Amino acid sequence: MRSYGYSEPETARFVMRFLKPGMTFLDIGAHIGEYSLLAGRSVGPTGRVDAFEPQPAIFEFLSLNVTNSKLSNISLHNQAIADRTGVVQMSLHSDPAKSSIGALPSPADIITVPAITLDELLHTAGVSPNLIKVDAEGAERLILKGAESLLALPKTTAPAWIMEYDPDNCARFGYHPDELLRVFKMFEYATFWITDSGELEPSSLPQPWYFGRNCVAVKQAPQL
Hints:
- The chain is an alpha/beta fold.
- The chain has helices at residues 9-18, 34-43, 56-69, 118-125, 140-145, 148-151, 167-171, 178-186, and strands at 24-28, 48-52, 74-77, 80-81, 86-92, 100-101, 109-116, 131-134, 160-165, 190-194, 200-202, 213-218.
- The strands form two sheets. It has an eight-stranded mixed beta sheet.
- The model has no long low-confidence stretch (mean pLDDT 87).
C-alpha cells in the first residue's frame, strides 16, 4: 500500500527527519530511486547520495529518474554491495524487486555483476556516510560481513543504518533476520523498529507487524 507517494511511508518519514543538508546517504538496492531522490532533496547541494543498483534493466530506470529529477548530488553505481570485491552472481526474479545476489529458487536468469564491499568503498572512495539504507532481499548479512571496519567506527563517526527485516528473504540465505540485530549489537549499535509515524521504538519490544518491515541501527540517538 502506498501513502504520500512512498511505498514505505514510515521509512520515508524517518529518512526525511534524519537527513540534514550536507549529509551523505548510501542507497544499497536503490531499485528505481525512490529513496535516492528523497535523500537527494533532503541533503541538498552540499550533500551526497550514492545509489547502488546491480540489475542492468532497473539501473536504466534509476538513471532516467535521476536525470529527470535534475538533482546533481546523486552518483549512480551499476554494481552490487557484497561481502567481497570483484564479481558476484545475481539471480533475476520475475519481479525485479525480489532479485538478489546469490541463488534464488528457480530464478529466471543468473547474471554476473560487479561488486564491492562497503569497507573497500570507504577506503578507496573516501565515502563517509551518515545513513545507509540496505534493501537486498536477504543478502543483508553478506553486506554487513563486508562492512566490519565501517561497523567498528566510533559513535562520533559511525553511520546509522536502515535494514530490511524479512524472515522469508533471509531464509533463502540460511539465516534468521535476528542475526542482523546480533551483528549490530556486537558492534555496539542499538537497534529499533520504525513506527508508522517514522519514530523509533527499541527492538527489544517486538511488535506483530515488524516482519517484512525495516529496522534502524544507531550508535548514538539521532536528533530528529
